[in-house]
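Morning. Coffee machine broken again, so started the prediction first thing and wrote up yesterday's gels while waiting. Chain of 128 residues, entered below exactly as on the submission form.
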Amino acid sequence: MSNIGKVFERVFGKRKKEEKIVEIEEISSKPSPVQETIYLKALPLRDLSDVEEMKSELKTGNILIVKVSPLAKKSVEDVKIAVNELYEYVQLIHGDIARLGEERIVMTPPPVRIWRERVPIEGRSTAA
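Came back before lunch.
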């Protein structure tokens, strides 16, 4: 598994419930007045400063596909920081976030949800 894959696994894998105090300006569980047209945008994550632009795009109601490999070439640790920050933000606004392979993530504003296929793990029963 690549370094980016390991970062994704840490962020999207089993997460411990942590109590964090986050200072955020006027974020409600409802999206801000959504623009008439919702865009699906493909954006590169080149620097930690790109995270704020992505939050703004989500806040206006756009759906994002983010390629993290440009930043990963510079610093895997910065990728971890950025993805964690985006994950927490998406959770806070009640959007959705998922991994798309080894190099991309997709983020949606509320009420858009990402469909996830549940694939049983070999050797394990699917019965509850």
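The longest helix spans residues 76-92. Going to sketch it on the whiteboard this afternoon.
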